Amino acid sequence: MPSAKEIKSSMRGIRDTMKITKAMYMISTIKMRKAKHQLEATEPYFYGLQEAMSSILFNFPSLKSRYFGESLTEEEDSSEKKESATKKKGYIVLSSDRGLAGAYNQNVFKVVETLVEGMDKDEYELMVVGDLGLHTLTGRGYNVNQEFHYTATEPSLERARLVSENLIKDFYEGKYDELHVVYTRMINSMETTVETQQLLPLKRTDFIDIENEKVPKHLRSAESGKLGAHEGDAQEYLIEPSPQTVLEEIVRNYVIGYIYGTLVQATACEENSRMTAMKSATDNAKDMLNVLTVQYNRVRQAAITQQITEISSGARALKRSKNKS
Q1: What is the DSSP letter of 200?
Q2: What values do phi and psi take at 44, rounded to 5?
Q3: Ramachandran quadrant class, 214 (left: phi over 0; alpha: psi -120 to 50; beta: rest)
Q4: Is residue 226 over pLDDT 50?
Q5: Is the CATH number 3.40.50.10240 carried by domain 22-279?
Q6: 294, 40 in Cβ contact below 8 A?
Q7: Which residue from 37, 137, 172, 190 puts its CA 20 to 30 A from 119's CA?
Q8: Which tens digits make up the pLDDT trace of 191-225?
Q9: DSSP code of 68?
Q10: Residues 6 or more apart whose Cβ sits within 8 Å of residue 144
């Protein structure tokens, strides 16, 4: 059984650890609230972009864009049919820069393993945000783009723009046939889930689908709830320099906004997971302290009892020696 001094030293170490876990819990709480506030502050702008894109697609249904997986010329259409057998997918994987976040990173890695299972390395490429994910997935032998290196800490709109620009360019030039983003989304304060969303090409039906009466609210008549005053006819729009140019610019900004939203969501989930992990660590430290306190009291009581016994034995021996003399 350890001595009282050893138990006391262990208790001191646990108390010091508790101070660290409590501080990390408070820091993660502040960072999570900040991430949520950032997302709420920028949502109206990107909702406005989505409405503008819906309006252009609705009023100019003949427009074609590579961002929607459509070829602009017949030559491109024929070349796409020839190369359809060799499609390459790009996956943007959002991980963290640090550990101590519970199963946050492992859940992301499991989804990535499922996505690329059975695929050759020339059929996919991983673009990993976060140092921990970059080193882990590279070490496991996956096809990771080493030139794509961005930190996951404190996401900003500028970083989202840097992440998106090259990816949008590569997709437009045909390096990738599809771009997907793997990130963690917060369902509520207690539950998160790892999601995979297709970033490019976009789907027209996500913005407008007249056949199934899926028309954005801002394009409906306020009285009837159906299409606007022309009942489906294109409204007169004057767009400069051209609808094609404006649409593609809006798409680029929309993709940047979507990346920014996933970065903020992932950061909020990471800090939420770290909060949960630090709270569990603090609770476990308290339980260990309670056990060690009981153990320390028993050792101390045993030592006191032994000392009293020794004093009593000495007093009796001294009394017997006096009686003999």
Answers
A1: E
A2: -60, -40
A3: beta
A4: no
A5: no
A6: no
A7: 172
A8: 889 999 999 898 888 877 555 455 555 555 444 44
A9: G
A10: 125, 126, 127, 128, 134, 137, 138
